[in-house]
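Incident review: delayed structure delivery

Summary: a single-chain prediction request sat in the queue longer than the usual turnaround. Root cause was a stuck worker, restarted by the on-call engineer. No data loss occurred. The affected request and its eventual output are reproduced below so the record is complete for anyone auditing the incident later.

Affected input:
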Amino acid sequence: MGKLLEHLYFSHTSGILGQLRINIENTKEDILIFGSSRASHHYNSLTLADETHLSTYNLGQDGQGMYMNYALLKIILERYQPKMIILDLNLNEFTSEKKRYDRVSRLLPYYKRYDAVKEVVELRSDFEKLKMLSFIYPYNSMLLKLLFGRTETQTLSYNGYIPLTESKNPKPETPNPKPETRNPKQQTDHGILNYSVKFLNLIKERNIKCYVFTSPHFTNEKIFSRSVSMIDSICDSMGIKYIDLSFTKGISDNSEYFRDVHHLNSKGAEVYTKMIAGMIRGQ
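Output delivered after worker restart:
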């Protein structure tokens, strides 16, 4: 049964499953974009390629974060070296969240193929090595996708970029309270923090041009974020360019550019991507 599931998985060429295969095995572009859903929806690969004259691929994935980013980058660098890497980080990137470890289950089918995947998968629990002795375990959470994922082709059509065309008529995000009055129960996830540094070190060791952004939220004023302060300090110490664009006047305060509070729609993504391209060209 496990071998059959493995065959079904690696025969996918579209949808979420096929997308991950392309990310791992076939990317060859000059610019690679990493991040979560905000990366996948905010950076139009084709527009960025047209504006910079550098081929571009968007590896952003819904619900994923630095563990996935690190594993993908380490695997890709074994194949080739891109000219530039863009990393999109969230306002709450380093806030502790238990589900972060569970989300790397998407990498389980690659556990026996890549050391980088073993490294992050085994962060989930002390029993992960034992569980991986089962041929069925890597596919437990994706049976429906194995059967029906072939119909999902959108992400392959735009070099990884997924446009959001509809709007949910969002209301502007309410800024967080000041540092001294914010929720004291919010804790820093030092695992994510550590893997962010490891990710950036991989880039720095190979002298790859890198930009780290926090892309726009729908808000009328700047939102305080401890994560932003941390990544700003880390990037500064490593000589890597970080720009906080979470509140970008003309974008963040325009409801026509957003699908919801956290995600630009395709119109907003086009405007934002062209702004990013201008920054890259200006360097």
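Verification: Residues 177-182 have pLDDT under 50 and may be disordered.
Action items: add queue-age alerting; document worker restart procedure.
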